[in-house]
Model the fold of this input.
Amino acid sequence: MSDADRQKETVFPDTPRSLIRRIPELAAGKDDGAWASFVELYEPALRHFAVLVAPGLPSTDIDDIVQDTFVRLVDVLRSGGYDPARARFRTYLATIVRRLAIDRFRRNATQQKLRDDLGAAAGRDGGASPDPSAVFDLKWRLACRKAAEERVLSQSALAASSKELWRLVSSKGMSVKEAAKALGIPVNTASKTKRRIETMIDAVEAEFIDRG
Done:
């Protein structure tokens, strides 16, 4: 047994198949008590495994990975995308967490690299003279991200609550769970909203960069 398999065996609890089949209806609010019990049972396990596979990520990112895992799980189970004959439930959960952690690392690394490269190109370390073309390119890419965010947030299709959620998460540094509590909305709803806005911003940013 590999180390990753041992981690999954020790971290995740056993889950009856009858409960797995009911997860989508529980998440939909048909039994709030049962859904709360499921989240209470699995949230510590998901958080622990996220820390294991993504050491160094800020706690707010870990919080978001946990909440996004619940959202992704419900969507997959609702669409019939999980086959217990192909993988154990804990293995499937671990796969979701790992993929979300990789996505988060990539997103953070890309933004940080842009900032670091911009600082280096501008000669902030006291080294060589700044390269004007490199500085312009990096500033353009950062500006594309900012412009994409502003365009998405200005769209009338987004509800005011969705815009406020994004502001709390992106500008105030709140986790999705903290923002959901501040706004008085379900965490699952907040996670879906954040993911939807991120996807919209990514798409608009790609358009800006392609045009450049």
